[in-house]
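Section 5: illustrative case.
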């Protein structure tokens, strides 16, 4: 129901912008959020879009409102980026979500808490820095429904290189990785989960 509402609201916005109508059908929008990503006082948009084929994953599309006129401009597209349910009537516990954070960043959440014994949750924190969207943070937790001792968590600040894996803190080389260049392997490796 929430997805249908978000898609309906965004469908109402899309034709008014005159931008990106040909990129994908509005019916493929799974989740959306608005906020001031570049801190210019205008609302911007972030959406998750279902893939166009079965061999791809969900895409992240990020828009900024142009300063000289009230139009949204696509500034970052990362198709085939996150795993999740791409159907409106799919499994509960596999739904991706995108939300605006109070500090102007964006949280992109994915999960599997529905199928199999290995369940996990992942959040990418995106930030607009120096004219592009980067992955500023990576949070991952996992557990085994049959083995209470098998599981863990990691919170990794990509920009500073600091991480906390369970109760253990550490650091690795700081990185600046755009959302287009991000791979979950980067976070998994830094957290020692690969």
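Designed sequence:
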């Amino acid at each position: 129901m929430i997805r249908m509402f978000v898609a309906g609201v965004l469908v109402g916005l899309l034709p008014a912008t005159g931008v990106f109508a040909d990129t994908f059908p509005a019916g493929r929008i799974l989740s959306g959020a608005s906020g001031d990503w570049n801190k210019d006082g205008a609302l911007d948009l972030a959406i998750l879009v279902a893939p166009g084929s079965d061999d791809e994953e969900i895409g992240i599309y990020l828009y900024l409102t142009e300063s000289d006129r009230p139009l949204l401009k696509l500034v970052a597209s990362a198709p085939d980026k996150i795993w999740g349910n791409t159907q409106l009537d799919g499994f509960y516990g596999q739904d991706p979500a995108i939300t605006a954070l109070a500090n102007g960043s964006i949280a992109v959440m994915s999960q599997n808490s529905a199928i199999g014994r290995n369940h996990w949750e992942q959040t990418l924190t995106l930030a607009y820095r120096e004219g592009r969207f980067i992955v500023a943070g990576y949070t991952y937790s996992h557990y085994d429904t049959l083995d209470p001792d098998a599981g863990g968590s990691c919170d990794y600040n990509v920009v500073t290189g600091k991480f906390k894996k369970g109760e253990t803190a550490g650091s690795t080389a700081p990185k600046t990785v755009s959302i287009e260049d991000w791979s979950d392997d980067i976070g998994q490796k830094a957290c020692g989960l690969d």
